[in-house]
Amino acid sequence: MKGMGNLQKMLKQAQEMQENMQRELSEMRVEGSSGGGMVVVTLDGTKSLLSVKLDPEVVDKDDVEMLEDLITAAFNDAGAKVDEEVSQKMGAMGAGLKIPGLF
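RESULT FIELD:
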């Protein structure tokens, strides 16, 4: 039954790694921008929108569609950066786990 002890140990280690990753994701801050920095959004690692900053020059009541496009582009830019950062973190985590057949 030594194998069961090892399995439980591996499961506990995986659970701890998942909890650490969730904490890191909630603490992560990533900015995306568009319009040469006229629109900047900040996301956390779960892609929740935390803030939007608009340069006053980009706010034009006669061209709301442009502002909407800029916000969308900034959000997509930040989302891609979150994906990249999460992918790097997951790769580093996987290197620490030595599970036969997976890594």
